[in-house]
Amino acid sequence: VFNDYCKEYLPDLYAKLKHLGIAACISLSWFLTLFVCVMPFESALYIMDIFFFDGIKVLFQLALTILNENRQHLLECQDDGDAIMILTTYLDQFNNHKYENNEEKKIIYLIKKSYTNYNGVNEEDINRLRLKHRLKVIHNMRESLLQSAAKNTAKYTKFNEQQIKNIFYIFKDVSRISLTEANDPKKLAYETYRINRDEYLILCKYLSPWFIGDEPENLANKLFDLFNLNVQSNQIDFIHFIRLWNILWNEDFKDKLIILFLSHLEDENKRKEGFKILLEPTSVRSSSETSEKEEIPSLYIENGEITYVKSSQLPLMNQTEVIHLCKSIYSLMTGAIDDENLFKALTTSSTLLLKMGEMCKSPPHQVEIDDNKKEIENEWTISFEQFEAAMNAETCLVTWFENNNGNNLSLETRINNYHQDTQR
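Now predict its structure.
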């Protein structure tokens, strides 16, 4: 709006300010603070007083008058720094005792001159110009938000910039803003958006390549429990959401197995412990950082031969959790092309896992309880590496996960489908 008034009343100065790129800067600092931050407080009180009497038009009149009073100096300045210095020096002079005998250095003079020269500015025109520019401003704010989301999350994903923007736009569409963080200066705007479980399931339905098979909500809920911020909030922010989607769409077989493995750990503390490792991939893959206890190799059976695989820092999984994990993978592949061969391969891998768990159990040991010796069996567990090795043994399983063979729609098509359905 202010730019339009500058163009109408001060066309030569408008061109200069546009070239220097400071019109928006000065209008924001002047209007949002009612000039309190740019001139002596005693002078600003006059402006505040007349603003409450005569409305928003006063601010535009004063701004145009200030620019006109400094027209020649501004036209001659070489850069934005010079222009800001000229205006700052000019505004500091008002009600300064050094200039108490100079009428032109008094705020009353500036106010009178603004009404004399720019009384044509009125609230009706201001509202008309606001309406004219509203869509453009909203569009610019939207683009700025999308750009911020893409720029700050690109390092976590293999999505390109436009894909991140498209995903964030949908995420924002179904989300809600965290009121406790909306005014946090440390938070970027895109970081304040959250989705709860129901909203997340809507996005899974449209965007997830794993929302397939028999009872897809079960696996989707387990992944939500893994990636949510905490149990109390029961929400996911955009950074966690884009990292999950990046694994589902872009990452390799191992990363997909990791989130399957971790999401089926029933103990929340173990799940969160493993999740931290997931967010730091080098920790999963680096054997040098593992503790002495964790460096004990895991047992693996291949072609009847006992071999060993290196253990990582990921938590161990018990027998019940392994069974639920295998059921989830079975459900995921239900209805897939060539599902008969996939089920056969999965049965073979599951059998291997159960055998490994049994063979890894140490012999029962005795403990004394109230002077009575009781035999205690060691817990049945497998490591992630054993799970990975068993799955890797079946080529068709590896191929299915790496190529997302259950997914016959591209991400772009899924995004378009979402927009079509929500606009009906």
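The domain at 2-121 is CATH 1.10.472.80 (Cyclin A; domain 1).
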